Amino acid sequence: MEHSDPTRVQAPVMAGNRLTIDLGALSRNWQTLAALASPAEAAAAVKGDAYGIGAEPAVRALSRAGCRTFFVALPEEGLRVRAAAPEATIYVLNGLATGLAAAHAAGNLRPVIGSIDELEEWAAYRAAGGSGHAALHVDTGMNRLGVTFAEAQELAADTGLVDRLGLTLVMSHLACGDTPAHPLNARQLATMREVRALFPGLPVSLANTAGIALGRDYHFDLVRPGIGIYGGPYIEGAPPLETVVTAEARIVQIRDVPAGQTVGYGAAQTLARPCRIAILSTGYADGYHRSASATDGHAGASVCLRGRRAPLVGRISMDLMAIDVTDIPEARRGDWVELFGPSMPVAEVAAAAGTISYELLTSLGARYARHYLGDA
Ligand SMILES: *Cc1c(COP(=O)(O)O)cnc(C)c1O
Q1: Alpha-carbon distance 53 to 46, whole Å?
Q2: Is the confidence at residue 86, as pLDDT, over 50?
Q3: What's the gap in Å between 257 CA and the centre of ligand 1?
Q4: What are the catalytic residues?
Q5: What is the pLDDT of residues 218-270, one digit of tens each?
Q6: The model scores a pTM over 0.90
């Protein structure tokens, strides 16, 4: 099925690059993580247009898989989720933006209150007869969002607070969940247990994908996986997750370049041997990070075609990049080349670019022809 937003659908025959998004794999990944976290409830983080894959099809697929609670960053994102999942519980992680209490409630969105200023604004709105629910974010060591533990203690002394504010969740966020041995994990867990004791009866949430893999202690009542659902990096000790996103680009042309010549802007890489160079129809304007370029003394990312890997050559341009297909003589103009997907893990490409799979996925550009496997 086509993407629900027609402005983002390109004719696949004309596109220089394409994305295949496997909604079945998305659903199975969520179910795998939900089983791992059970009896805690599993929600889904669908901020950033569901990590670049398209919020509406992702939310519809996850809802069919049994997901009832979604986390977004912004109220605008929340409204899109609301349209796709009328019955769902939706939390807005970036907190209560100034003046938007009524707007949240009107969309049945629950702001995750992350500071005393926000809390006072929400309290005033509720005291004036406003309806709606909210979550309270307590910082346990990340120092990004959330009231401090000391503030939480003060708030908890007011036993009517939870009802008065319509609080339905108290949450925090791990800073180092993907580094299991990091001592901050245990400190955040210990603080979260104290937070739970402050607000008896209020559901508690701490874990993202990596936090689920840290084990049962971290699950509390609700987990909030994101990257794992989208087939992000393999998590030590967890069942393997399936690839959801496959990005491919077409070979525009193939040319022979003699040894000693350079390829691309800045003459950044000199060929040590005569090469067959394939030019791909994708570049940094498509979200393929320029920092994955190959330069003299620095290997770049690789792509996969016809079952083999081919390294990038020279700098990535806005709309094009070059790969070395000298050792893949069957490569032809018009071939589709895998940028990342089942044969080229997105985490590996991200590492070559000096970033993380989250950033590659959320950077996926508008020029990709998007194709969904499963009901979009
Ligand atoms: C993005 C986010 C998540 C999901 O994190 P993943 O690492 O993608 O699983 C969970 N909680 C919060 C607060 C987030 O911002």
Answers
A1: 9
A2: yes
A3: 46
A4: 47, 265
A5: 999 999 999 999 997 656 666 789 999 999 999 999 999 999 999 999 999 99
A6: yes
Which atom of ligand 1 is closest in space to residue 51's alpha carbon? 8
The 10 Å CB-count burial string (b at 16+, else e) for 201-214 is ebbbbbbbbbbbbb
**What DSSP character marks residue 284?**
G
User: CA-CA distance, 208 to 44, in Å (whole number)?
Assistant: 9
pLDDT of 83 strictly over 90: yes
What is the distance in A from the centroid of ligand 1 to the CA of 300?
Answer: 28
- CA 178 to ligand 1: nearest atom: 7
pLDDT at 88: 98
- Alpha carbon nearest to ligand 1 atom 13, residue: 173
DSSP state of 140: S
In a mutational test of the pocket of ligand 1, which residue from 47, 77, 93 has the highest number of ligand atoms less than 8 Å from its CB?
Answer: 93
Pairing of strands 109-113, 134-137: parallel
Spatial separation of the C-alpha atoms in residues 374 and 156, rounded to whole Å:
46
Cβ atoms within 10 A of the Cβ of 108, count? 17
Q: Ligand 1: distance of its center to the CA of 17 in Å? A: 29
| Alpha carbon nearest to ligand 1 atom 6, residue | 226
Residues 192-210, mean pLDDT to the nearest whole number: 97
Check if the beta carbon of residue 29 is closer than 8 Å to that of residue 243: no
pLDDT of residue 6: 42
Closest C-alpha to ligand 1, atom 15: 93
100 three-class SS:
coil
Stretch 303-311: mean pLDDT: 97
- List the domains of the chain with CATH numbers: 23-230 (3.20.20.10), 245-373 (2.40.37.10)
Token pair for 315: 């700098």
Q: Cα(324)–Cα(302) distance, rounded to whole angstroms?
A: 9
Ligand 1 residue neighbourhood (C-beta within 6 Å):
45, 47, 71, 93, 173, 208-210, 224-228
- When the pLDDT of each residue in the chain is averaged and rounded to a whole number, the result is 95
Q: How far is the CA of 171 from the centre of ligand 1 (A)?
A: 12
